[in-house]
Amino acid sequence: MPLRDHFRLPVYRQASWEGFHGMWPAQMVMQLVRVLPDNYSAEPRVHLGANFEIDVCAYEDDVPKLHSSSDLSHGGTSTAIYAPPEPTSVMDAELSEEYAYEVLIYDHSRGRELVAAVEIVSPGNKDRPEKRRAFVTKCAALLQQRVCVSIVDIVTARHFNLYAELLDLIGGADPTLTAELPSTYAVTCRGQQVGGRARLASWFYPLVVGESLPTLPVWLTEDLAVSLSLEASYEDTCRALRIS
After folding, report:
1. 206 near 183, Cβ under 8 Å?
2. C-alpha–C-alpha distance, residues 184 and 172, integer Å
3. What gap in Å lies between CA 112 and CA 115, rounded to an integer?
4. Average pLDDT, the chain
5. What's the pLDDT score for residue 70?
6. Are 177 and 155 in contact (CB under 8 A)?
7. Range 105-139 burial, b when 16+ CB lie within 10 A, else e
């Protein structure tokens, strides 16, 4: 079945991209558990950032209670409360956290060590230069720790290629990339040591609306990889959300 455009009609009216992105990691996990060795596990992670707030009333019993001076007069000890000075500067700043949709794979034989991550790009990851930089910096840090990183980008609403920006950050070059970078794609990256030199191996696949999705290799060790069928998990998610 083909890739849909989740950011335009008619799909946009059938299900929100947030709902699709939130469910897809779980479907990827369901697909991965069929091929992962017994000592590995996969978990979906959806981080909703600063826009997701928990009602503080649900945890009010866990909040330490402050005692007034009248409470302390009955045998308590009064402690002076520190009153900080006014700030020397107050300015507008972008401090909110972006949404994150990912699948993390762990090796339990190595103390539940993170060995692979599948990062699903959201519109916020491609919004502004600083958000794109934050995303590729996170991916670069994982690669530096010898974690296999897969990036899946079906965001048609913003035309940036975060894989290309990742390569710019680490000083790499992919000869398969053309001057006209595809804005939707899937790629797996893994760091290697070859002859004492650091190397980056990549498996890059442009994604096209109306065409099927590829299968990505997910590397668990230097010599062991499993397959992640994006097509299977994608179609399972579409069926569950009744996206035609």
Report:
1. no
2. 20
3. 9
4. 86
5. 46
6. no
7. bbbeeeeeeebbbbbbbbbbbbeeeebbeebbebb
- Tally of residues, the chain: 244
3-state secondary structure the chain: CCECCCCCCCHHHHCCHHHHHHHHHHHHHHHHCCCCCCCEEEEEEEECHHHCCCCHHHHHHHCCCCCCHHHHCCCCCCCCCCCCCCCCCCCCCCCCCCCEEEEEEEEHHHCCEEEEEEEECCHHHHCCHHHHHHHHHHHHHHHHCCCEEEEEECCCCCCCCHHHHHHHHHCCCCCCCCCCCCCCEEEEEEEEEECCEEEEEEEEEECCECCCCCEEEEECCCCCEEEEEHHHHHHHHHHHCCCC
**Looking at residue 81, what is its pLDDT?**
78
Q: How many CB atoms are located within 10 Å of the residue 144 CB? A: 11
Determine which of 58-67, 77-86, 230-239 has the lowest per-residue pLDDT on average. Answer: 58-67
CA distance 103 to 25: 6
For position 54, what pLDDT does the model report? 33
Q: How far apart are CA 12 and CA 157, in angstroms?
A: 12
* pLDDT, average across residues 84-91: 75
What is the Cα–Cα distance from 89 to 75, expressed in whole angstroms? 41
More confident residue, 41 or 79: 41
Alpha carbon distance 110, 166 (integer Å): 28
